[in-house]
Amino acid sequence: MTLPRLGVVVVLLVLGVLRGATGIILLAVLTVMTAWLSTLWSRRGLAHVRYQRHLANDRAVWGDHVDLEVSIENRKVLPLAWLRAEDFVTEGLQIVDHVLSSSGRYGFSVLQNVWSLGPFERIVRHHQINATHRGRVQFDSVRLTVADLFGDDGASREVDLLDTLLIRPRTVPVRTARGAVVPLGARRGLRGLVEDPSLFAGVRPFQAGDSRRRIHQRAFARTGRPLSKRFD
């Protein structure tokens, strides 16, 4: 209890006793109880409080949405009327339906969540990260702050809780102005680049694009169907 508050309690008790005023004495007792509760929250508010953060994936592609789950658990009888969690995240991160605030720390913003927790209660909240910037996104420590019912006293502590999300560039198909390009070696030529007419290598069926001069006349007369000459 602070000295000003202690002085108020002493004055109220003296006046109540001297005048026999039960109401003033009751007011002094309530002031003492309020001070005791404030001290209790400031000393024991963050005891047995567990905070967790979970990323659905540690890798994403530009334009994806990544699920982020945060949970807080109060593992004691003392309820928590007001508890705030501030996650330090890489500046520029976008979270759907949630605005990040300034952290005062270079290169980081703050993802803020506020809860009211009863005894042995656990609450889970779900967020969605909008991967709009490629690169490495870092989730640093989290700062937990608890206050009493009157909001004039509390305690704070910072917990190391590191997570990383790697956002890769989007993959797009490559197109050229010339249209489809056949890879080298995928298309087979109808004839060799250089043929020696003196090196006769037989005949083959006539194909579209063959010159009429390549038709083997005697083979054509014998078989009744056009055949082209082959040369080495």
Question: What do these coordinates show?
Answer:
This protein has 232 residues and is an alpha+beta fold. 20% of the residues lie in helices and 39% in strands. It is built from 3 helices and 13 strands. The strands form 3 sheets. Strands 2, 4, 6, 7, 9, 10 and 11 form a 7-stranded mixed beta sheet that branches. Strand 9 and strand 10 form a beta hairpin. Helix 1 runs antiparallel to helix 2. It is rod-shaped. The model has no long low-confidence stretch (mean pLDDT 80).
What are its keywords?
232 residues, alpha+beta, seven-stranded mixed sheet, four-stranded antiparallel sheet, 39% strand
Show the helix and strand layout.
Elements: H1 3-19, H2 22-44, E1 49-55, E2 59-61, E3 65-74, E4 80-90, E5 94-95, E6 101-102, E7 108-117, E8 122-130, E9 135-147, E10 154-159, E11 163-168, E12 200-205, H3 217-223, E13 227-231
Parallel strand pairs: 2-11
Antiparallel strand pairs: 1-3, 3-8, 4-7, 4-9, 5-8, 6-7, 9-10, 9-11, 12-13
Distance between the termini: 107 Å
Q: What's the total helix number?
A: 3
Residue fraction in strands: 35-45%
Write the H/E string, N to C. Answer: HHEEEEEEEEEEEEHE
Counting helices, strands and paired strands, the structural category is alpha+beta
Tell me the total number of β-strands.
13
Report the helical percentage. Answer: 10-25%
Largest sheet: 7 strands, mixed
Are there runs of 5+ residues with pLDDT below 50, and where? Answer: none
The overall pLDDT, averaged over residues, is: 80
Shape designation: rod-shaped
Rounded Rg: 41 Å
